[in-house]
Automatic annotation (TrEMBL):
Swiss-Prot/TrEMBL GO biological process terms: arabinogalactan protein metabolic process
GO terms for cellular component: Golgi membrane
Lineage: Eukaryota, Viridiplantae, Streptophyta, Embryophyta, Tracheophyta
Pathway: Protein modification; protein glycosylation
Protein's UniProt keywords contain NAD: no
The protein's name: Hexosyltransferase
Topological type in the membrane: Single-pass type II membrane protein
Subcellular location: Golgi apparatus membrane
Organism of derivation: Rhododendron griersonianum
Positions of the Galectin domain: 1-107
Length: 386
């Protein structure tokens, strides 16, 4: 049996995602295990590297694919990053257990996201440039949220689903929405990238999680004021979009209706702790309004017009979670004009499912793999490597 490797190292730790045999039963088991924790016992084929009372040197290194652990110079284990992980999310290291730490030595700490090498990652060929904006209104505008240093992610999107014939013919327009980075050199490279490819809208503030909602407002404004789109879609730069499938889905709805399409959460409760914690002062209610998950949703232009109008009048409530904010705004619009809420799991929030409309948490390699499968096989299939 061929052993799997991560960054050239043998992956020693059994990883639950490898147990999927693509059957419906295994997918259900996988989701259940994600909710309640791993149920299968992990087997080890190497001697335990620690002994009571014995000193050891443990080295933890972060690669592009995952973490690697060495004890006394011997490679002990490697394991992949969790789905959707970005290396800059790692802000600290904690140690638990009955271990006495004698000293800590840090060397070669990364100064930026590992994808920050634009000279290597940006393929500055004219075929990847955005086509000019059409003079006529477009059917769909796709606003893609991205971070300043996500050069690899944007390049993968350009080379994959942004090559769809509907985008190349300008019937659909897609743009990245990027805020300024705290590092001057990132902003300089970003501006060069924007000038060359013509597909980036730089919003004039420093990138911050609590201000992401302003990018959503900017997407709405661009969609209604710049391209006069019939429908406005928001997604992330790690979301793969089947453009034709999305349009077919919204065209099923009557033309005269306002709608909100996506993977919609009903009676979703705020988290009161962790990365996405919301205080009672920020949100005193026990439930959020119905809202579509942020990696991919669509609204009609009248809803986007309402958002832009309320924002310009300083009446728009800005909540730090942009997808919940959209749910609030649609709910407010719904009080004066009925909105049809259309829920579909094919706007996949936690990765990819076959026959997807959108797939989230896709790495640049996965983006290219999925695009190749669409082109060569004509079928929307997932690529389960990272």
């Amino acid at each position: 049996m061929k052993k799997q490797v991560i960054d050239g190292q043998v992956k020693c730790d059994k990883w639950i995602r490898d147990d999927d045999d693509h059957s419906e039963e295994s997918k259900a088991t996988w989701w259940l295990n994600r909710l309640i924790g791993r149920t299968k016992k992990v087997t080890f084929e190497w001697p335990f590297p620690f002994a009571e009372g014995k000193l050891f040197v443990l080295t933890l290194s972060a690669g592009l694919e995952g973490y690697h652990v060495n004890v006394d110079g011997r490679h002990v284990t490697s394991f992949p990053y969790r789905t959707g992980f970005a290396l800059e999310d790692a802000t600290g290291l904690s140690l638990n257990g009955d271990v006495d730490v004698h000293s800590i030595f840090a060397v070669s700490l990364p100064t930026s996201h590992p994808s920050f090498a634009p000279q290597k990652l940006l393929d500055k060929s004219s075929k990847w440039k955005a086509p000019p904006l059409p003079d006529e209104p477009v059917e769909l505008f796709v606003g893609i949220l991205s971070a300043g240093n996500h050069f690899a992610e944007r390049m993968a999107v350009r080379k994959s689903w942004m090559q769809h014939r509907l985008i190349k013919s300008s019937n659909v327009v897609a743009r990245f929405f990027v805020a300024l980075n705290g590092r001057k050199e990132v902003n300089l490279e970003l501006k060069k990238e924007a000038e060359f490819f013509g597909d980036i809208v730089i919003v004039p503030y420093l990138d911050n999680y609590d201000l992401v909602v302003l990018k959503t407002v900017a997407i709405s404004e661009y969609g209604v004021d710049t391209v006069s789109a019939k429908y406005i879609m928001k997604c992330d730069d790690d979301t793969f979009v089947r453009v034709d499938a999305v349009i077919k889905e919204v065209e099923k709805i009557a033309d005269d209706k306002s709608f909100y399409v996506g993977n919609i959460n009903y009676y979703h409760k705020p988290l009161r702790y962790g990365k996405w914690a919301v205080t009672y002062e920020e949100w005193p209610e026990e439930d959020y309004p119905p809202y579509a998950n942020g990696p991919g949703y669509i609204v009609t232009s009248d809803i986007a017009h309402f958002i832009v109008s309320e924002f310009k009048k300083h009446k728009l409530r800005l909540f730090k979670m942009e997808d919940v904010s959209m749910g609030m705004w649609v709910g407010q619009f719904n009080s004066s004009r009925p909105v049809e809420y259309v829920h579909s799991l094919k706007f996949c929030q936690f990765g990819c499912i076959d026959d997807y409309y959108t797939a989230h948490y896709q790495s640049p390699r996965q983006m290219m793999c999925m695009w190749n499968k669409l082109r060569q096989l004509g079928r929307p299939l997932c690529c389960n490597m990272r």
